[in-house]
Amino acid sequence: MTKAFTPSNLPLEERTVGRILARQADRLADKNFIETTSGNCISYRDMHLRSNQFAQGAAAFGIESQEPVLVMLPDSIDYVTVWCGLAKRGAIEVPINLAYRKNILKRLCNDSTAKKIIIDCQYVERLEEIADDLEHLDCVILYAEDQKLDSYGTLPPKLAQTYQVARFEDLFSDISTDFEPAPQFSDLVGIMYTSGTTGASKGVSTTHSHSFCYADGAAEIFYLSEEDRFYTAGLPLFHLAGQWGVCYASMIYGATVVLRKGYRNANFWPDIAEHSCTVVFLLGAIANFLWQQPRLPEDSETPLKKVGMFPVMTEHKQFRERFGVEISTGYGSTESPCPVIHHFDEPLPNHQCVGFPTGRYDVKILDENDQVCTTGIVGEICTRPHAPWEIMLNYWRQPEYTAKVFRNLWYHTGDAGYQDEEGRLYFVDRLTDSMRRRGENISSMEVEDEVNQYPDVLECAVFPVLAEHSEQEVMAVITPQPDVTIDPEKLIRFLNRRMAYFMIPRYIEFTAAIPKTPTGKMEKYKLRAKGITPSTWDRVAAGIKLSR
Q1: Cα dist. 379→70, 369, 384, 424 in Å?
Q2: Are the CB atoms for 98 and 122 separated by under 8 Å?
Q3: Domains in the chain, number
Q4: Of 455, 463, 385, whose CA–CA distance to 431 is shortest?
Q5: Is the domain of 409 the same as that of 473?
Q6: Same domain flag for 449 and 422
Q7: Phi, psi of 311 (to 5 degrees)
Q8: Would residue 309 count as lying in a domain?
Q9: Residue 256 is inside which H or E element, if any?
């Protein structure tokens, strides 16, 4: 008996973005793949043809197979075109968080070794600020959303004199829509930067097969089908959950993506109703924000049926009943996609439970000696795929750190958790002081580096604390220079010019000395245990608003 086709049954060699999109363009030609809340749309067939044009234009422009290419674009149909086109060409997309600037942006550009960047013209000033320190970049491809030449304005002289400059639309000029994707399942499709358990952000080398596994796992969480309309809720395309968890998952299963640029609570339910959205990812505190809105009689009378909640809020049962939705969740990372899934029809004992290991992965809880913890004992969550190519290839240009996290043939996540007698996984916390805020991974070291650049700071320690909505917030404990008093508002203004808004500390505590071990290592656990005190300065309470 012939086994029925499902995306999960695709042969390994078919698990590339180009082959998946070609298959769906043939099956679902005129069906909308992407719709935007601003009224634009593109079908599966047209996305296939337009990304073919981009792939061929990229090749003609000199973008080589397996060449890293930086992408700094706002959410749009064009961004999806770039992602698909680069994947078809066999290039390696390096998405940039649109909030990055200064040192973090410079570090990412240099570490990627990318020679070319596709960048929206509104961000070129950030590029100009670091131009003298860029080690590899030699070409800037400018994008303007309205596709008009006048919108580009004048390129900053430093960039015009230093780099080859091209326009985004030039890559589509006189190009055929015929293009045969060449990449293999084992080729890299992206370098995705994420904060590690220690140190600066690290690039996760992801193959076509790995990205497929991530997307297919996300689709499994939602029981995704062709009838679904997946609302992005402002989840950005530079974020893996937006690009792979929503767009690629929808492509694989033939669903429609409803793309919202930016997020406001006030837009959520009107968008759901107007665009008949059936599925949504709710990251961070968004579920809490929706929960706290005034109750309405029609709360349960919407098209929305399936909600992925990451993390699960404590009132998840009440949320489910109020809005008439099913709630699922899961556990995973950029490195190890969807090893654990909670399905809609499974009981959810509490908000820390993230489900059962899938058929793709083994999951173990290991102690500091890499020995298996007994049931109910908290240790480090470790994962291992059953098949090759379903986990990251490595950390880009980080062989020693790659070996460290893959020791004993298990991927060590840096997360703390435990399993119950039935095998369910419970996520407890990070093992280190890296943190996650509003769906963004934050490296404490990167925040410390920027705070320490302020002339009046002697040293600082940065770590996460819990605030309202069970959301992690960034806290900095600072020792000023001798005989100096630091104005926290002036410090925040300084940081706002140098780093992503979501990384800027909300809480600041000043202290004469940071506790340390005899060897000089900061004892952050003591500071974290102390937490927020009456003397802690609160940026939100002070009414300081950040520019983005």
Answers
A1: 37, 10, 16, 14
A2: no
A3: 3
A4: 463
A5: no
A6: no
A7: -80, 170
A8: yes
A9: strand 256-259
The single-letter DSSP state of residue 86 is: H
DSSP secondary-structure letter at 436? E
We report the CATH number of the domain holding residue 472 as 3.30.300.30
Strand partners for 230: 257, 279
**Spans of the chain, pLDDT less than 50:** 1-5, 149, 151, 196-197
Looking at the fold, whether 483 and 352 belong to one and the same domain comes out as no
Task: Identify the CA nearest to 195 among candidates 407, 472, 459.
Answer: 472
Last residue of a domain, one of 142, 173, 204: 204
C-beta of residue 222 within 8 angstroms of C-beta of residue 272: no
Hey, what amino acid is at 90? G
Same domain, 26 and 169: yes
Res 432: pLDDT: 67
Q: Which helix (H) or strand (E) holds 63?
A: none
DSSP-derived letter for residue 244 is I
pLDDT at 156: 79
pTM score = 0.85
> What is the token pair recorded at 497?
């010019």
Whether 69 contacts 35, CB under 8 Å: no
Question: Does the residue 123 lie in any domain?
Answer: yes
105-127 confidence digits (pLDDT tens): 999 999 999 999 999 999 999 99
Q: Kindly state whether residues 107 and 253 are assigned to the same domain.
A: no
- Single residue among 411, 430, 449 that ends a domain in this structure: 430
- State the Cα–Cα distance between residues 236 and 234, nearest whole angstrom: 6
What's at 307, amino acid-wise? Answer: V
The pLDDT of residue 433 is: 62
Contact 72, 189 (CB under 8 A): no
Instruction: Look up the domain containing 459 and give its range.
Output: 437-538
Burial of 460 (0-12, 13-18, 19+ CB in 10 A): buried
- Give me the percent of the chain exceeding a pLDDT of 90: 70
> Does residue 3 belong to any structural domain of this protein?
no
**Whether the Cβ atoms of residue 461 and residue 490 lie closer than 8 Å to each other:** no
- Residues 413 and 466 placed together within one structural domain of the fold: no
